[in-house]
C-alpha cells in the first residue's frame, strides 16, 4: 500500500472487507470516518487487484512503448473504459492510463516512448522531432508578428 496514504492499515483492511460486501466508497468513508478521496482511490485499486491492493509494491512497473500505445488506442477507439482497460491489463490504476492518453493527445506517439535516466530521449532528437520543434518556433514567431501588426494598425487613443 502507498506510504503516503491517509488511511491507517486497520482502515484499509476494514475498507476492503466492506468493499467485498458490496458497499461503496462513500458509505465506507462514512463508516470508517476516513477521507472520501483516499477511500475512493483504494476502492479503484481494489476493483483491479482485489485484496492485493493492500500489499505494498517495491518498485514501479515499467511498460513498453508498444504496450502503452496499444492500450491508449484501445481506449481512444472506444473498446473499453479506463477502468475496464486497467482491469484487463492489470494496471496499477486507471489514472496511469489517463496520463498515457493525455500525453498521447498532447505529444503524439513520441510522448509514450521511454526516456533515458537524464530525461532526454534515447539517441537524441530525431529529424522529425527537430522539424516539429522548428515548426512550433515558426508558428510562435508568426503569431507574435501578427499580434504586433494588429497593435500597429489600431487607431491612436
UniProtKB/TrEMBL annotation:
<dbReference type="InterPro" id="IPR052057">
    <property type="entry name" value="IS150/IS1296_orfA-like"/>
</dbReference>
<dbReference type="InterPro" id="IPR002514">
    <property type="entry name" value="Transposase_8"/>
</dbReference>
<feature type="region of interest" description="Disordered">
    <location>
        <begin position="106"/>
        <end position="128"/>
    </location>
</feature>
<protein>
    <submittedName>
        <fullName>Transposase-like protein</fullName>
    </submittedName>
</protein>
<dbReference type="Pfam" id="PF01527">
    <property type="entry name" value="HTH_Tnp_1"/>
</dbReference>
<dbReference type="InterPro" id="IPR009057">
    <property type="entry name" value="Homeodomain-like_sf"/>
</dbReference>
<dbReference type="InterPro" id="IPR036388">
    <property type="entry name" value="WH-like_DNA-bd_sf"/>
</dbReference>
Amino acid at each position: 500500500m502507498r506510504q503516503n496514504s491517509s488511511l491507517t492499515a486497520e482502515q484499509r483492511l476494514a475498507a476492503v472487507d466492506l468493499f467485498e460486501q458490496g458497499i461503496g466508497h462513500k458509505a465506507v468513508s462514512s463508516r470508517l470516518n476516513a477521507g472520501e478521496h483516499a477511500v475512493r482511490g483504494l476502492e479503484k485499486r481494489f476493483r483491479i487487484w482485489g485484496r492485493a491492493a493492500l500489499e505494498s509494491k517495491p518498485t514501479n512497473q515499467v511498460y513498453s512503448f508498444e504496450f502503452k500505445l496499444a492500450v491508449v488506442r484501445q481506449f481512444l477507439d472506444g473498446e473499453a473504459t479506463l477502468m475496464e482497460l486497467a482491469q484487463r491489463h492489470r494496471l496499477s490504476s486507471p489514472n496511469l492510463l489517463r496520463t498515457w492518453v493525455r500525453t498521447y493527445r498532447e505529444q503524439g506517439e513520441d510522448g509514450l516512448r521511454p526516456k533515458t535516466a537524464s530525461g532526454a530521449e534515447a539517441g537524441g532528437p530525431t529529424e522529425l522531432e527537430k522539424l516539429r520543434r522548428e515548426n512550433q518556433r515558426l508558428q510562435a514567431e508568426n503569431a507574435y508578428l501578427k499580434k504586433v501588426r494588429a497593435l500597429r494598425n489600431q487607431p491612436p487613443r
